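Think of the structure tokens as a kind of shorthand, similar to the way a musician reads notation: each symbol stands for something richer, in this case the local conformation of the backbone. In the example below we present two proteins back to back. Begin with the first one, reading the sequence and then the tokens, and try to describe in your own words what changes along the chain.
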Amino acid sequence: MKVLVTGGVRSGKSFHAESLLVAEPHVTYVAPGPQADVDADPEWAARVAVHRARRPDHWGTIETHDLAGALRASDGAVLIDCLGTWLTSVIDELDGWDQLRDDWEPVLLDRLAETAAAISEHRGTVVAVTNEVGMSVVPEHRSGRVFRDLLGVVNQRIAQECDDVLLVVAGRALRL
């Protein structure tokens, strides 16, 4: 089973995604966001600590930007939380915030295709969490528009590999 769980910030999407895997004997939790962001921001660090405390002891954790590699190296269920932090880390790595998209977007799209293939090929359950950012105002700054537009591309591509897509609003999951 492959599931994409999307929703707004603080909608309950991570909690819901975790609840889909409670019966699994082994879960690999893939955290693709940059650890430096956690270390530098006390509020973000507190939110990460809440997520960590919720996870059962038998869940393993991998912190990596290589989602395809993490999926291929993992047995059993995998929880990716979240695709938005993965996208941010890839754009950071490619120095994309200040460069022309044409110069780095093909590399991003290759990584996305590799990740989608790894999700499709994975024999266990995969639950991917992502942010839904396309239902708001157009961001004022270029970086916000780039992120919003590309996360929409990421979400659509990963949804193609999933058996189910859930939208979480106010802690309630709606099947799309």
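Once you have a description of the first chain, move to the second and do the same.
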Amino acid sequence: MQIQKATQADIDVILTIIDEARSIMRENGNTTQWTNGYPSEKTILEDINNEQAFVCLFNDKIVGYFCFMQGENPDPNYSLIEGNWLNNDPYGVIHRLASGRSVKGIAQKAFDFAFTKTNNVRIDTLHENIPMQNFLNKNGFEYCGVIYVGDGSPRDAFQKVII
């Protein structure tokens, strides 16, 4: 599997994968994440324009999508946490991680990619997203507390630091 920057030409495939990921969430009891059209085409295009959008390719076919941001404070929602981050160093964050049913291992590839860019990664997810929380726990991420996103809703926050 390969990772490459997404382009505007990829938008229709990305949105299809997001719809499929949304269906998988619902089947696993996660009925409140990615509602009301989120993530929208506008959001994905912003990711692309900010050069933070990435696709996972398998046999030259797009099978996954994620947004990867990094820097001093790439996600202002992470400034306040009910709990404690592992450190206050610059970090990377993965958002909008989506895969369909065709290929397994998208999350692992996305995080492997992130750790080639930084040794410090944060992520948040809804409490109901049990598959993502299981993945994070299995892969050495530590639960740090609760953050709140733009609409005020809570998210469980995780971080992993490779020393």
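Compare your description with these statements about the second chain. The CA atoms of residues 120 and 161 lie 5 Å apart.
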